[in-house]
Amino acid sequence: MTNAADNVVVDIRKLWTVFKNTDGEQVVHRNLDLHIERGEVLSLVGGSGTGKTVLLRQILGLQKPTKGVVEVLGQAPGELSAAGAANVGMLFQHGALFSAFSVLENIAFPLRELKLLPDDLIRHAALVKLQMVGLEPQHANKSPSDLSGGMIKRVALARALIMDPPLLLLDEPTAGLDPEASDSFCDLLRGLHRELGLTVVMVTHDLDTLFDLSTRIAVLADQQVIVSGTAREVIAYPHPFIHEYFLGGRGQRALEALHDKPAPRPEAARAEER
Ligand SMILES: Nc1ncnc2c1ncn2[C@@H]1O[C@H](COP(=O)(O)OP(=O)(O)OP(=O)(O)O)[C@@H](O)[C@H]1O
């Protein structure tokens, strides 16, 4: 029988994040707990400055907690070996492609940096990922400047997936995309989550993306996760931020769309039913 703890991909316990600035100390996270299980698409929402991006950076190992524990698959992310760092893929908000590199060189970059595989294998792996994100082989030699916003996101996603990470972090995945490109990128993410059995942690301000992809939503306010659950559970929680965020005009419109379709569910739960 599988122990519930074996399924925990991200384990955050009693996390404190404190920055020293000109006005003194700023406490961003106070005793924050968050556990994310295999197969979840966990979305972080919260007001500006509540520490969503800092939390993603801590899961990626780019920033250390002031106090407390952040573990990915049982290890502190900052202490992972180069091969262990392959456990986490990150899609940055603006794609963050290298402009001097071709599409294929961008996708291959993390694998090339590892210096473990010969060039032809790296090229093959990058071409597989190009196809996986819905791009054609003829896009391989293009420069990022020749691509649309939607295509840049796809290339950045292919690069984030090049090492086959079990955990994918998404920072505003649909920001800057028009509604059609945004829907199509959500469809791609949903398909990859299902097919690859990924665990996903996402920060988004876009309510359509939030409701479309999340299996669980965690709300950051008052330096903590004040509630986490399905969209319906979170919206029912009495807190001024939640009221303003979800029940304002924008939230109401997204909610009406939500009522028309079934809630997304974790891939792990679906797999157990098979
Ligand atoms: N390296 C740093 N040094 C000092 N302060 C920082 C640092 N990184 C983040 N902060 C501060 O921590 C707070 C949380 O930042 P963060 O970027 O995580 O917010 P956020 O929830 O992602 O906000 P937004 O939704 O506006 O992007 C902000 O007040 C920010 O100025």
From TrEMBL:
SUPFAM superfamilies: P-loop containing nucleoside triphosphate hydrolases. PROSITE patterns: ABC_TRANSPORTER_1, ABC_TRANSPORTER_2. The keyword Nucleotide-binding applies. Keywords: ATP-binding, Cell membrane, Membrane, Nucleotide-binding, Transport. GO terms for molecular function: ATP binding; ATP hydrolysis activity. Pfam families: ABC_tran. It comes from the Bacteria. Residues 13-247 form the ABC transporter domain. PANTHER family: PROTEIN TRIGALACTOSYLDIACYLGLYCEROL 3, CHLOROPLASTIC (PTHR43023:SF3). This is ATP-binding cassette domain-containing protein. It comes from Acidovorax cavernicola. The lineage of its organism: Bacteria, Pseudomonadati, Pseudomonadota, Betaproteobacteria, Burkholderiales.
